[in-house]
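This part of the workshop introduces the protein records we will be handling. A record pairs a protein's sequence with a compact description of its fold. Backbone structure tokens are a discrete shorthand for how the chain folds in space. The question running through the whole workshop is how a given chain folds. The record below serves as our worked example for the rest of this section.
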Amino acid sequence: MKKYISIGVNELDTYLDYAILIIIAIYSLHSTPSEMGILGACFAIPFLVASGLFGKLFDNGNILKWRMLLFFINGIVMLFYL
């Protein structure tokens, strides 16, 4: 049970970091939507790739498909907000 709570907390922390990064990009750097998309992809892709490794180590690789689903949902939702 502790393992799954830890995974959930890490996911929330990742998305909180991404939200802070987007706020900085909008207000400080005056980023365009395409620049924000590239910034988001650069931020999220290492986590997507690393989840396969951690999934194999901790949960026999089952976490990767859910991580990919959340990654694509996040990408689709961001299109509507940009």
